[in-house]
Amino acid sequence: MDYSAQKKYFHIAYRTGSDHWTKTVLPFRDTVLAERLAPNSLILDLGSGRGRFPFDLVKRGFRVIGIDYVGEVVKKNNHEVKLLGLDKNLRFMEADALDIPLSDASFDAVTDVGLIQHVAKQDWAQYIGEISRVLKPGGYCLLAALSKETSRYLTWTPKSDANPSYEREGVLYYFFTGAEIALLFQNAFDLVSFKVEYTSDREPIAYITVLMKKKA
């Protein structure tokens, strides 16, 4: 898939402040991951956007590298890192989750809050391969992705539509079932926990939160 239109959309959204998803209060809590990691563990966050989740993880005592393919938002995040004096524990890089420019088996955990839903089906294997490659054996992967249980999203009705994917303004949205994610990751990961939760918006959005452990 050519992601150029999608990348352009996110670039404009972060530049203009129209990134409505950043303001969405997600239902999951990072304690499901944090309680399994030792202090100072190194975490890679994929598709960091404005960096809300990485900043929260650093506050919990972890070291984090966040990647995003929108260079402008990466620069803004790193400026905030310096202002807050978090240079030793947090940095952001301009990079693509399908080609992570970091060493094999170098992270204790990988997190993805809302990225996999924008990855085309034909690229899922590459996406999973990259996560598995950079994780240490026994490392954790935490995903929060759009769920097929969502009744309405923008102008679409995922729960009642047989098609799990939707495209708007060049951006792909894929709505997952728990069984689908378990099947996708089963060769490289063991499922630790799984939950579907809803945002508190007027029209609630369902998210799947999945914690997995890389097989030794």
Note the overall shape: globular
Mean pLDDT: 95
Percent in helix:
25-40%
Total count of strands: 9
By oligomeric state, this entry counts as single chain
Number of helices: 7
What structural class do helix, strand and pairing data support? Answer: alpha/beta
List keywords for this structure.
two-stranded antiparallel sheet, 216 residues, seven-stranded mixed sheet, Rossmann fold, 28% helix, globular
What's this entry about, in short?
The protein has 216 residues and is an alpha/beta fold. It has 7 helices and 9 strands; from the N terminus they run αααβαβαββαβββαββ. The strands form 2 sheets. A 7-stranded mixed sheet has the order 3-2-1-4-5-9-8, with helices on both faces.
Q: What report would you give on this structure?
A:
The protein is α/β, with parallel strands linked by helices and 216 residues long. The protein has one domain: 3-Layer(aba) Sandwich (Rossmann fold), CATH 3.40.50.150. 28% of the residues lie in helices and 29% in strands. It contains seven helices and nine strands, in the order H-H-H-E-H-E-H-E-E-H-E-E-E-H-E-E. The chain has a seven-stranded mixed sheet with strand order 3-2-1-4-5-9-8, with helices on both faces. Strands 6-7 form a two-stranded antiparallel ribbon. Helix 4 links the parallel strand 1 and strand 2. The protein is globular. It starts with a helix and ends with a strand.
